[in-house]
Structure prediction request, 1064 residues.
Amino acid sequence: MQTSPSTQTVNVGGFEIGGPNFTVIAGPCSIESYDQFLETAKGVKTSGAHILRGGIWKMRTSSKDFQGLGSSSFDFIKTVCKETNMTLVSEVTDARQIEEIYDLVSMFQVGSRNMHNYSLLKELGKQKKPVLLKRGFAALINEWVKASEYVTNEGNPNVILCERGIRTFETATRNTLDLNAVAYAKKNSPLPVIVDPSHAVGISALVPDLAFAAAAVGADGIIVEVHPRPKEALSDGMQALTLENFSQMMKKLEKICTAVDKPLHK
Amino acid sequence: MQTSPSTQTVNVGGFEIGGPNFTVIAGPCSIESYDQFLETAKGVKTSGAHILRGGIWKMRTSSKDFQGLGSSSFDFIKTVCKETNMTLVSEVTDARQIEEIYDLVSMFQVGSRNMHNYSLLKELGKQKKPVLLKRGFAALINEWVKASEYVTNEGNPNVILCERGIRTFETATRNTLDLNAVAYAKKNSPLPVIVDPSHAVGISALVPDLAFAAAAVGADGIIVEVHPRPKEALSDGMQALTLENFSQMMKKLEKICTAVDKPLHK
Amino acid sequence: MQTSPSTQTVNVGGFEIGGPNFTVIAGPCSIESYDQFLETAKGVKTSGAHILRGGIWKMRTSSKDFQGLGSSSFDFIKTVCKETNMTLVSEVTDARQIEEIYDLVSMFQVGSRNMHNYSLLKELGKQKKPVLLKRGFAALINEWVKASEYVTNEGNPNVILCERGIRTFETATRNTLDLNAVAYAKKNSPLPVIVDPSHAVGISALVPDLAFAAAAVGADGIIVEVHPRPKEALSDGMQALTLENFSQMMKKLEKICTAVDKPLHK
Amino acid sequence: MQTSPSTQTVNVGGFEIGGPNFTVIAGPCSIESYDQFLETAKGVKTSGAHILRGGIWKMRTSSKDFQGLGSSSFDFIKTVCKETNMTLVSEVTDARQIEEIYDLVSMFQVGSRNMHNYSLLKELGKQKKPVLLKRGFAALINEWVKASEYVTNEGNPNVILCERGIRTFETATRNTLDLNAVAYAKKNSPLPVIVDPSHAVGISALVPDLAFAAAAVGADGIIVEVHPRPKEALSDGMQALTLENFSQMMKKLEKICTAVDKPLHK
Prediction:
C-alpha cells in the first residue's frame, strides 16, 4: 500500500528527480525581460526552489497573442542562470529549436499540446538531456506513458512525466488536476512523475493547496509559475504566485514533504 | 493564501466536521450481514475511524444487481452501533426512506446520482439531522453548492459537501478525483467539504494516496470503503481497503493531518 | 448497413413511435399561462406537430428560479388539449406527481437529472402510460438502456429513449448532441429513440439543423421547444424556436424524412 | 434559420468544397500496397467518390504499431491517381514531409493530434495547396477556428475544417461526433466544414448513419475510410466500410443531399 520509490531517477541540474527527495521547479510562464527573470529567479531560489522554469517560445491559441521573446533572450538567460547558480527547464515546440537552446537548458519540456507530436519526441530521444513530458490535456494515462516511449526508444531514458490537468466539463477552474493519474503512473511506470498545479487549476489562490496535495499523493516534485507582479504578466498572470505567495507555500510544503518521508532537496 | 477555516461546522455523532480536526468515516459499501458489519466496525474503530458508513439500499446501474438488505438489517445495525459506540451515515434514495432509518443514522447521505433529486433534498431540508451531499459525477461545482441550498432553504443548515470523483474521458480509474473542486469549494462556500477517495479512483491500492492528498488539499475529512474480505464483497470490492490496509493508511494520514495543522479527532 | 426498424413501437396519443413514421413533439419549456400554451399549441399543430410538450414542474439548478405553475395549471391544460385535439407529454420529478397528472398526459417524461432516480422509474413501471426516458447528461449509453429496465421490469414495456445532449468540455453550445448514441441505441436496443435538439445545443438558430441530423441518423422523432416570444420565456428562452422558425423547420424536415423513408405522421 | 452558404470555397482537385455541392472523400486509413490502394480507389470512384484519402505516415499511440509505408509508396500512389483520374488528400505530421509529398497531393491534411502544432500550421500557411484541418479531439470550437488562422495569416486562405469526433466519457463509441460544432462553425466561420464519421464513431456499421446526419446538418462533405477487406487492414479496420457498404451508403446519401439542396458533385 505504500508508495513505491521510482525505480528510475533523472538528474536535472544536479538534483535527482524520482529518488528520496522532492524537487521544486519554479519561474515565470514567459521569460519577459532580464529584470523580470532575474528578480523571479533570485526570489524563488531564496525560498528554496531547485530549478528554474521559463518559456522562450509560447504556444498560444491565437496567433495574435504574445509568442515569447525567442532568441533575443538567449544571452540574458545565461547570465541569470549563472548569477543564481540555477539551471533552466524550457519548452521546445519544434524540433528545430532543440539545437538552438541546447546549451541554455538542463531539461527540455514538451508541452501538453505537443504530447502527441511524435516527430518532436523522436528528435528528443536522440539528445543527451532529460525531457519533461507534460500529459496532453485530453490524453489517457496510457497514451501519456506510451508517448514517453517515443523518446526512450530512441536512446534517451531520461523522461519525467508531468501531470498538468485535464480538460473536463468543469469551468470554474482552468483544467481538472488528475491526481488519480499521478498515483496510477507512480505504481505502473518506472518514470518519475511531477505535477504542475498552476496550469491544472489556473487560479493562483488555489495553487498552493494543490501543490500540497501533489506532495501528499506521492509526486516527485512540482513545477509552478511565479511572477513578481502577476497582473503585469504577458501570459497566464491569473495563475502565477507572487514571490511572497511562493515563499509561504514553501514553508507548508516542507512540513508535508517531511510528513510523507520525501523531504525537499537541500 | 492559507486555507481558511470553514465558517460553519456540522456535528455528526459528537464529532465537529469543518472545524480544527479531521474526520474519518469508514465502513463497507453495502451492509451485508451482522458479522460483516460488526467485524468492519470494530476494525475501523480500532484504527481510529470516527463514524461508520454502510449502505442499506444501493443504487445500481442494473436492476438485477444486489440492491441492499433494506429493512431486514435495521435491528442488527442498531446492535453494531451500540457495541462499538459509533454512529452511522447511510444513503437514502427515496424520500420515503427518511422516516424508516431516522433513528438508525446520525447523518443522511445523498448519493451522486441523486444530487439533482430536488424533491429528496427538500424533504431532507425539513429534518433535524445533517446531510452529506455527494457531488453529482457530472455536476459543476456551482450546481453542487446550489443543490445544497435546496436543503438549507428548508431550514436544515447542516450540510456537508462530499467530492467523490467526476466522470471524464479517463478509463484507467473509475472516476477522476477533482481536488480542484475541494480547494475551490473550501474558499467559496461556508460548508464543510470531505472527500470519498474510494469511488473517486475505484482501485483499492490507490485509495490511501488519494486520502493523503485530500488531507493535504484542505478537506475536512474522508469517507472510505473498508471490507474484511474485499473479494467477497457484494458491491464495489475492487475499491475496498482491507482492515490492515486501513490501519496502515491511518498511520500515515495522522502525520499528514498534523503537518497541515488539522489533526485527527481523538 | 441500413437502419433496422425498431422491433417495438409505442403508441402515444394515437401516434405509433418507433414504426415507419417520424413523430414531432413540440411546445414550450414551461407552461406559463393559458394564453401562452394555447397559442403555442395551435401554432405547432398548424405546422404539423403531432404531440405537445410542456413543463408543469421544472427542475432548476437554483431553488430561487421559476419552478413551474404546478397544479394551478391543470384545468387550462385540459382545455388546451381538448381545443387542439392534441395530447401532452410532461415531466414528473417525484413519484407523488404521477397520480396528480395521470389524466393530463399521454406520456410521462423522466428528465435527464432523474435518469438514475430508480425509485421514480420503478413507480412508472407500474403505470399504464408510456415513459419518455431522457438520457442522463453524463450517462453511458449502456446505463441509459439499463435504466429503462427499471421501468420495463415492473411491467410497463412502453419506454421511449430520448437523447438530449451530454456534458463535455465544449462550452460554445449548451451540451453536445450525441448522435453516435442514437445510431448505437437503434442498433442495440428494441426501444424507439427520439432526439431533443433544443437542450442538446441550447442555441435556437442551430436547433433546426440538428433536428435534420436527427432525422437523417435514423431517430424515430424529435421533441423541440417552441415559444411564441422566446425573449419573454420564463425558462430556456435561448433555445426556443418561434412559431415561424418552427414552421420553416417543418418544411425542410418533411423533405429529409421522405428522403430517408420515414415520412412524418399525417 | 436556413444554413448560410459558406462565403468561401476551396478548390480541391477540381471540386469546389463549400459551395452548392456536397463532396465525398474516401479511401483507406493507411495506404498499404499498390493493389490495396488501386482496388479501393477504383471501387470508391465507381460509387461516386470525388477525392481519395490515404495515409502515408501514420501517427500511432504506440511507437511499435505500423507507422505507414512512407516514401516507398510514392511511385505507386502517382500511378493510382493517374489510373483513376483522382487526386489524393494525405496527412503530414512533420513540416519536413510537406516538400516530400507536395506533388502527390491536392490537399494536405493536419490530423487531430497536430491541430495545436502551430509550427506545422505556419509552414502550411506558406504553401499553395489547401489544408484540411481536423479538430483536435479535445479542442474547443473556438480553438479550432483560431488554429486555422495560423495557416491563413501566413498567406494561404484555403483551409477546410473537419469535425472528427471529440473525446468524452462515452466508451461504447470511439469518439463522440459533435454535429453541434458543425452547425456552429458553419454559422460562425467562412470556412467550409466537412465531417469524418469513421473516426468519430469507430464502428463501421454506424458510419453511414452518421454520414447521413452530417449531410443533413449542413456539412460541405465527408471523409470516410474504405477498405476492400477491413479485417486485414493494418490500421483502424474496425471503422472501415467495405466497398459494398460504401456503395450502398452513397445511394442513400445522394437522396439526402438532394433533399437538403446540396446535391453531390457530379
User: Anything to note?
Assistant: Chain D has nine helices and ten strands. The first helix of chain D runs from residue 34 to 47. The interface with chain A takes residues 59-64, 93-96, 113-114, 116-119, 136-138, 142-143, 146-147, 149-150, 153, 167 of chain D (CB under 8 Å). The mean pLDDT of chain D is 94.
